[in-house]
Structures
1.
Amino acid sequence: MRIGEVISQHLYPAVSRISLIVVIALGAGLFPADALPQVAARHGMVVASEPLAAEAGLGILKAGGNAVDAAVAVGFALAVTHPQAGNIGGGGFMLIRLAGGEAVVVDYREEAPGAATRNMYLDERGEAIADASMVGARAAAIPGTVAGLALAHKKYGKLPWTRLLQPAIRLASGGFPVSYDLAKSLRSESGLLSRDPESRRIFLRNGREYEAGEMLRQPQLAGTLRRIAASGPRVFYRGAIARAIAATMEKRRGLIRIEDLRQYQARLREPLRGTFRGDEILSVSPPSSGGVGLIEMLNVLEPLDLGTPNSFHSIRIIAETMRRAYADRAAYLGDADFSSVPSHGLTSRAYAAKLREEILQSRAEIPVQPGKPLPYESSETTHFSVVDSAGNAVANTYTLNGSYGSGVTVEGAGFLLNNEMDDFTTQPGVANMFGLIQSEANTIAPRKRPLSSMTPTIVVHDGKVQLVLGSPGGGTIINTVLQVLLNVLAFKMDIRRAVASPRFHHQWMPDQLVLEGWGFSADTIQKLEEAGYKLEYREHMGACEAIEIDTQTGWRFGAADPRTGGKAVGY
Ligand code: DON
């Protein structure tokens, strides 16, 4: 293959379906990653869950932008082309590692409005009000994306801010052809979108649903993006866009007010650091549980012989590790600016040794409590990874939470608002939309950030970036990142195989082991059942968009997850 040549990964879903049939036919239980195109590049690489946005990032790299510039451009472009998760009305985390070694997390997670209260989603009897934290204006928290992308650009960007918004403005005003995946996703969420007149008008054309190939034009969103290009984040948090958000909130009985927007700030945080078999792991600290969970699990697994990937032995050890890390997540994690979170204790080697002992000696001994079954999961959050020619790297995961967030579009401004309030503990001990049980540490308070599972991660080998990755998937995110990392670092797979390989997930409660049904042999499944695991199956988990760099030669290899329609592009 030519250097940097990219085969359209629109083919991926088709490839994965064909491969699936082959796998089932052979009963092999392995994903034939060799059927997927290799995307190799010498200089820069962008991997995102939607091809036009990935191309937008590549254009910025080729125009002399660095990885942060490209990430900002991808972030805005996805807000146009991937409205189910790409956003300016949501929030997330950007992990940046510069070639010189400096690393930082831009925390632009949403915040609870000033008028939010601990029991705001409960009725007078203390019972949860159905859907209240998930649907409509009251489910929305103060959006952080515009502040986060602007802060990243101000600190580390090279190209002018306005330049970075150009691709998004072009895609919004000129339109783009709706992909098969987007048409399907819009149709499947038509119930949510039709509850809001603006969302129904823009995304469902008032009932004439989009077919694949038809153009989606978003003139109001283009206007909003032009304003942000011209005036920066000020217009979003203090100017015309802030007023539009507040007006929509008043009309739809939401809580976000101008004062909430005015005080919002993205924060720079120290990355959480760990090591695994000599490599350095950089990830995010609270208010995400991602870094703590990932490093806690890697510490437990580091000295163990993990055997053959996806064998009974390997799955058992990893699943028992997952179970314990998620039990700790449920018990201890929340926004560390509000609650005391024992991140150091949970990521200490001494604690890992204790957990390891328990895992090696025991079978499932954590008492079982009732949980809510895991819901069907689609790709609602979105991750992208960028590396530039100098070796600067960005791992960015951001979201509206559920697909199309709260379903509410800001009137006159053309963008959807998140439903991130559901990530709080709306009632201690009661599961959220991802079936996750959470503690007091994550209860609602004004200006607090809800606990996330987003896990943008970078691995550094001998002082150079080796891996850049992350994934959507709600509660499954941390385990997806863990498995892709283990596939590379412990099982020595190349990045395509590591990303394509079948996944499993245990989150303590509900007490079940979830498997991608196509990926495991009948023998392994039988052994897991005999060992007492309650098995559940999902078609797919996560959508990991990853880059691996050969630290000796500098070659960059991109892997868009074949489970969804993403794309890796390089030059
Ligand atoms: O921050 C979190 O962990 C969730 N709001 C992420 C939601 C998500 O990944 C949905 N996607 N599949």
2.
Amino acid sequence: MNAPGRADDTPSQLLALAVAAAREAADLVARGRDGAGEHVGTKSSPVDVVTAVDAASEALLVDRLLGARPDDGVLGEEGASREGTSGVRWVVDPIDGTVNFLYGVPAYAVSVAAEVDGVVRAGVVLDVATGELFTATSGGGAWLTAPGRPELRLAVSGPSSLELTLVATGFGYRAEQRAAQGQVVARLLPRVRDIRRFGSAALDLCAVAAGRVDAYYELGLNPWDHAAGALVAAEAGAVVSGLGGAAPGEPMMIAAAPTVAAEFLDLVEELHR
Ligand code: IPD
Ligand code: CA
């Protein structure tokens, strides 16, 4: 059983801490861009890179989150893993879109989610290059704060058919998995409006939320890739789902505008059989 929750465990209070930590981490990531190529290692495959900035960003996030709430747990892409006792666990991706970060392609983000008793209740995805801040709390909607613009409540698009559906997707880092994912995309492409591959799952999910694409799917994500973005998409009205009754992200993450969600899910399922 979890220890009694703290008085400040409301989603909006958790979000405020997540936003403050993400803003600091995003500043660190932005400052690190010029030297991004200097200390680069690899993880699951030669193309799965990690920079010193990923590690520094994660260390900063963990420091700020657990500094404020020492009884919480944490899970991070670069190895942070700690059981807490408060019932709250932070799921962080210090740079989602590391390959974009390395090359200077402006689509990489800091992602921070707060789970309460295993359910994501607050999430923030901060696009480092554009400064766009996507936030959501469960039941509180999804919001976009962009520099110099008023805060905007996000709502998904409403494509009228699958053939007019703009689809984002991504690919894993193992060659074998990519070969299979490529075959699926080849069969999907003639059935939809077009395909986009932005290179950050967190931003893909926020793109669904903002109506910049109509649907997104990806196989084999990790929790830190989708924890915050999936809440943003869901709170903007997307249908967020796995395949065949599985939970979203386990192992398939799908987010789609409700007008085409059922058809899109069927198609993704058919193509992965
Ligand atoms: C990756 C990105 C990418 C997705 C990969 C992820 P990383 O995360 O989200 O878009 O296709 O599956 O691993 O490595 O840049 O943090
Ligand atoms: Ca990631």
3.
Amino acid sequence: MLLNLYQKVTRFIDHDARTARYLFLIVAIGFGLFTFFGDNKPLQGPIEHEWINAFDSIVSFILFLLLLLCNPCKKYFQEFGYLLIYILNIGNVYLLYATGFDIQYSYQFIVVYVISGWFFRSELAFVFFFTSINTALILSLLVASSTTPPTFDFYATYVVAAVAQVVLIRYRFNVEHMLTESEKKYRLLAQNSFDLICVHDADGSLEFVSPSVKRLLGYEPDELIGHKPYEIVHEADKHIIRSLVLTGKNHPSIQHPIQYRLKHKDGSYVWIETIFTPLDSPDGKTNVVLSQTRDIRRSKGYQIQLEERTKELERSNADLETFAFVSSHDMQEPLRMIANYMQLLKRKYAGKLDKEAEEYIDFASNGAITLQQLLRDLLSYSRITRADIKQEKVNVNQLMKEVLRNIQLEIKERNAEITIGELYSVVSDKNLLMLVLQNLTLNGLKYNHSKTPEVEVTCTTMATGFEFCVADNGIGIKPEHQKRIFEPFHRLHTKAEIPGTGLGLSICKKIVERLGGTIRLESEYGVGSKFYFTLPK
Ligand code: ADP
């Protein structure tokens, strides 16, 4: 507790120069008062005690001014202050001697003597002070003891003061030693850190810059101290730092990493990432900001490369889609002609050609029909990426009824049973959603060997949206094929077994993703499949 109290007092005096200043001002005023109103006893020496008091008052006042005007941490001011403290105390020793160790002056001496001890920041200076003042005092005691022996009061107060001073100063230096040691550790950390560590004052100027700045930006720390880093921020990134200043130091955004460019000494720019952390001063106000800066040139390079590649990919993807769209669109016309003429040929020469020739015509016209279907699917596949998404309220129950009307032929042919559950209305693109539901329902009938195929369409609501499910009692899909069936042209059957182009599910996937959802599958081979797709709310 004692140590704690002591630390508080020393911190109070050391860190608040004002306190020290006022102590010396009080001492100066005290001596001033002694000068004019003190007890006028005859002195043993050649100097009048008023003069000594006046001298002490002036010295204390100079100490007050020194602390008021100058930074007490500057070495030469500090040493000049030590000198004045010696002089002040020697003056007091002389006064004690001259007044015959009068108890009034001994209190005065002891107050100044103990206060002075607090201002020594170096152990050596304190030891010198202590021995010189006490030697001077002992010598004057020896000289005086024959003529005017000092009183017991004087000895008692003096010894207690000297012991108290030594004990307290020892504590102080121990605490300071501990502080210096821990500060040394942190300084070592900051100085040897690979990252750049800086301390900024209240208006952003740099107070401390770690030596790693040389490696990162080519400057010596001294070249940047006192400057604002804003001066070397890339023009294009200045707004980032400006907005940071505007949002204020207490704004939470300050603790997120910010990426920007700083000018290297050689004129080039370096991509860096900084985290600013406001540090609270002992008075609870934020007046210092710590920044940690990291070189991100390499990762930034990768990021830029990746962005360029992605753009390139997007471009070539768009080119491919345009190509698929244009070619499938343009191929439709000549293909329709081939199919029509094949039909015409078949009709006109029916019975006139031999069997083999008729078979060839059948192959050719079937091929043309398959190709037509493929082109139609390709066209709608490439249209999905280009289509504008309309956002409208869609009554999915109603939409499902339309789907059933569209595929009523297939339903009848297969003697199928379609059950529609309670389907939620959504905000989405009606036509695209219809394509998905129709494709999935048709697949439920198509990939189904049951005598009465069953398809059930249901919907559940989730926190982020809706999940629709199209379930069938069809042939099911083996687990090893389940992932790949959403890829274009990936089919599990030959065209002879079950006709199709292999584009239906990839069209569904593309649509669902464009509508902001996902599609997945659960299936048991030989039992049936459930296709789930989500739509955002
Ligand atoms: P297609 O347009 O040829 O029908 P899809 O992309 O719709 O092609 O389907 C791809 C493959 O996925 C099909 O060949 C089929 O094997 C399988 N498949 C799709 N839906 C079902 C389903 N409901 N039940 C079983 N298999 C299915």
4.
Amino acid sequence: MMKDRLEALRREALDQLETVADAAALNDLRVHYLGKKGQLTEILRGMGSLSAEERPIIGQVGNEVRAAIEEVISQKQQMFDRADTARRLQAETIDVTLPGKTPSVGAVHPLNKVAQEIEDIFIGMGYSIAEGPEVETDFFNFEALNLPKNHPARDMQDSFYITEEILLRTHTSPVQIRTMKAMNGQTPVKVICPGKVYRRDDDDATHSFMFHQIEGLVIGPNIRMSDLKGTLLQFVREMYGPQVQIRLRPSFFPFTEPSAEVDVTCVRCGGQGCRMCKQTGWIEILGCGMVHPKVLEHGGYDPAEVTGFAFGMGVERIALLKYEIDDIRHFYANDVRFLGQFARM
Ligand code: PHE
């Protein structure tokens, strides 16, 4: 009787297991047939009423039925596990041959790049870097540079005033005075001063109300105009190439005497004459001169003891020439199509 029920249970269980659909259903069947409150336990509970001879026989049949069902369950379990692994391998496969997404990398702004290059050249010649405020006093921006109030040369640098006495600096030359004062009469002074400057100009292809300058100042006993010339020649050759020549044209700045404007041989045509240099073969790049005695005095130096030279250049201008850019406004528009071109230069 009990043996028949066990055999029937075996058949039923194996039948069900034959068509089990997934791991969850398999687990349900396992609980149903083999669990603590399952069918097999239910049948074997009746063993108590069996005779002593029957008991071991039925016990053995019960064990065989359990083993047979467990065997099939474990086969099915392995089958589902393999199928699951295969499905995940398929779903999570990475196609390493797909083209990647190129990360967009930023670039140093061309003006910073050129400013850094200029700084590096002068640092290589033993200069150090000095800085000053962009909001400046009339004294440092004009007065101490030998440009007294109502001096007509002030017209060269139309300014943004905050009060009568405070303005946005129109050039980096006030840093000359600040540096001299900080040096307290000591020599040598050998600095370059990079920074932003402001002028009341209407913006166009070659003018901007804000631009960048780098000032140079050297003071010591017996500094001569030939030192200035040699320094500038060395600078332009490192900047534009060893074939470049310079020429100095007499000019006027209230804070230098004598003063000169410096031209380089045209970076595009090499001096033949082209549209860029207006057929002259030369391009103006900076202003310079020997520091005016009155400026030395304002800075706390005795013009009988020391002399010096100074120069000032526009970073935009140097960059326009270097990269043959035709409009200064490109520098400020922040168009990534323009800026991206300097990423690998
Ligand atoms: N500060 C002058 C300018 O902005 C340039 C300059 C600097 C000239 C130093 C001579 C010496 O035009």
